[in-house]
Write a structure and sequence with these properties.
This protein has 187 residues and is an alpha/beta fold. 44% of the residues lie in helices and 17% in strands. The chain has 7 helices and 6 strands; from the N terminus they run βαβαβαβαβαβαα. The longest helix has 17 residues, at 97-113. This is AAA family ATPase.
């Protein structure tokens, strides 16, 4: 079983929306997903699971999806340090300066923990200046040996759009999500 954990110590980076999107996508292609919500402040992942057709505790799941709180705590570090061989931590980051700075610090902590992680640049509009900024941010991470996805997520969909399945009809978002999942699950 593969564990996909969404984490960043900053709130508002898209952890929950990406966790919901991954769960919805994997469910749509017939995978069994076990869902865990460790964000006790803003439990939107639990709301999504409650409203979706996903069984959050199936027998013999193919994947676990874990949404975490946007704060650096010992509990978060313990959670991220478990099941290391079978886990990938997805670290969403927008192109805002505060997201970039916080994510860089968090990524350095993850490197010290020796866990598998990848930064995913999120909330990238199709406008040329937005894409150019995302490319610059990606290269900034790579220049200091921080693993970063080749692909950008174009925006953070609302929980309602994810629950309705409409994100899976948006080819741009779906393609980016599929590509990122292939990267993190090694096919």
């Amino acid at each position: 079983m593969k564990h996909i954990k969404l984490a960043n110590v900053k709130g508002g980076t898209g952890k929950t929306s990406i966790a919901c999107s991954i769960a919805e996508y994997l469910h749509a292609i017939g995978k069994k997903i076990e869902c865990h919500d460790y964000d006790n402040v803003a439990s939107h992942f639990k709301m999504f699971i409650d409203e979706s057709a996903i069984d959050p505790r199936p027998a013999n799941p193919d994947f676990t999806i874990t949404d975490t709180i946007g704060a650096l705590t010992n509990d978060l570090l313990d959670l991220l340090s478990t099941d290391v061989e079978d886990s990938i931590i997805i670290v969403p980051c927008s192109c805002s300066d505060s997201d970039i700075n916080t994510t860089l610090k968090f990524a350095r902590n993850l490197k010290r923990l020796r866990v598998n992680f990848i930064v995913v640049i999120n909330k990238v509009s199709g406008l040329s200046h937005s894409v150019a900024k995302a490319v610059k941010v990606r290269e900034q991470f790579r220049s200091i040996d921080i693993p970063v996805s080749d692909y950008f997520l174009p925006y953070t969909p609302s929980i309602e759009n994810i629950a309705s399945g409409s994100i899976l009809r948006n080819n741009g978002f779906k393609h980016a999500l599929e590509a990122i999942l292939l990267e993190v699950t090694n096919g």
